[in-house]
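STRUCTURE:
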C-alpha cells in the first residue's frame, strides 16, 4: 500500500499470548472467545506487528515489539515466540537495515510496544537498537513510564526507554502534532497516559495505526475494552470518536496485536461497529 510518497510495510516482530479475560475487561468469555479463542491457560493469540513507512528519504518504524531482554520467567508467562517472526527477519525481507531507520515512533512504552528499542550486547551493555534513529514519544507517556502506578508497573521496564534519553535520541512530544505533511500523531488517554495513534493520510487514502485502542479485530465493538486500561470510560469515549472517523471517512486500520488480521475497514450498523473488510498491506 502507498499513501502519498510513503510505502507502508507490515513488520511482524513476534507472537505472544495474553490472558483473554484481561484483554476483554468486563466482556464475558462466551462472547469474546468467538473471535479470540483461548488456550488451556485462558490466553489468546497475540502478535506485535510494527509498521514501516518508507518514502525513500525517511524510514519510520512505528513500535518495536517485545525485544529480547525479558527474563525466562516473563517469556514463559506470555509464551513469547520468535520461531516464525522476528523484527530482524522481517526487516531483512524488506531489505532494510537497522542503520537505515531514521525515526522510531513509539505509541507508548509498554514492553510489548517499546521492548525492541534497546538490546543487551555480548558484554551485557544496553545498546540502542536503531542507532541512527530519533525516537518519538509523548512527554506525558515518558513521564508516566518513569513513575508508573502499582497497577501498571509490570508493563514498564525502564531498560526499554531510559537509554534513549541517556543517549540523547529521545524526542518528547507535547500533544497532537503534524509529524510531517502526511503523518499526524494523536494522543489518547484511556489505555495509559498519552498513548499516540499514528495517522498516515494524503487526503484520499488514510491508515490509522490504532495501537492498544483497537488491538485486535475482536476489539472493534466500542465496549470491548481491555482490563489493562487505566481509564476505561475515557477509552470508551476515544473509541467512539475514532470509530466514527474511521467508518465515516473510510479509513483503514492497522491492527498491531492481531496475528490473524493485519488491516481492516470498519462500518457502522444498528448493532454497532463491525469489520466490513480484512486485508494485508502486500
Ligand atoms: Zn499497552
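SEQUENCE:
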Amino acid at each position: 500500500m502507498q499513501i502519498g510518497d510513503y510505502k507502508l510495510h507490515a513488520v511482524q516482530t513476534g507472537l505472544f499470548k495474553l490472558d483473554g479475560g484481561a484483554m476483554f475487561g468486563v466482556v464475558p468469555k462466551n462472547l469474546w472467545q468467538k473471535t479470540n479463542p483461548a488456550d488451556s491457560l485462558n490466553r489468546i493469540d497475540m502478535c506485535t506487528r510494527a509498521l514501516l513507512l518508507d518514502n525513500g528519504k525517511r524510514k519510520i518504524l512505528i513500535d518495536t515489539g517485545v525485544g529480547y531482554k525479558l527474563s525466562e520467567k516473563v517469556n514463559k508467562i506470555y509464551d513469547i515466540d520468535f520461531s516464525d517472526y522476528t523484527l530482524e527477519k522481517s526487516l531483512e525481507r524488506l531489505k532494510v537495515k537497522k542503520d537505515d531507520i531514521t525515526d522510531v515512533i513509539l505509541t507508548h512504552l509498554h514492553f510489548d510496544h517499546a521492548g525492541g528499542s534497546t538490546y543487551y550486547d555480548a558484554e551485557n551493555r544496553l545498546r540502542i537498537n536503531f542507532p541512527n534513529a530519533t525516537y518519538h514519544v509523548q512527554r506525558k507517556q515518558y513521564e508516566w513510564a518513569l513513575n508508573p502506578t502499582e497497577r501498571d508497573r509490570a508493563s514498564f521496564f525502564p531498560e526499554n526507554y531510559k537509554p534513549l534519553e541517556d543517549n540523547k535520541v529521545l524526542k518528547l512530544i507535547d500533544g497532537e502534532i503534524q509529524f510531517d505533511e502526511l503523518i499526524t500523531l494523536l494522543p489518547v488517554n484511556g489505555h495509559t497516559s498519552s498513548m499516540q495513534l499514528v495517522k498516515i493520510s494524503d487526503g484520499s487514502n488514510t491508515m490509522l495505526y490504532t495501537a492498544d485502542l483497537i488491538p485486535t479485530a475482536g476489539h472493534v465493538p466500542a465496549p470491548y475494552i481491555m482490563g489493562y486500561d487505566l481509564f476505561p470510560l475515557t477509552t470508551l469515549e476515544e473509541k467512539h470518536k475514532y470509530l466514527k472517523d474511521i467508518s465515516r471517512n473510510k479509513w483503514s486500520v492497522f491492527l498491531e496485536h492481531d496475528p490473524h488480521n493485519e488491516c481492516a475497514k470498519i462500518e457502522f450498523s444498528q448493532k454497532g461497529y463491525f469489520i466490513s473488510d480484512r486485508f494485508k498491506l502486500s
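REMARK: The chain has a mean pLDDT of 97.
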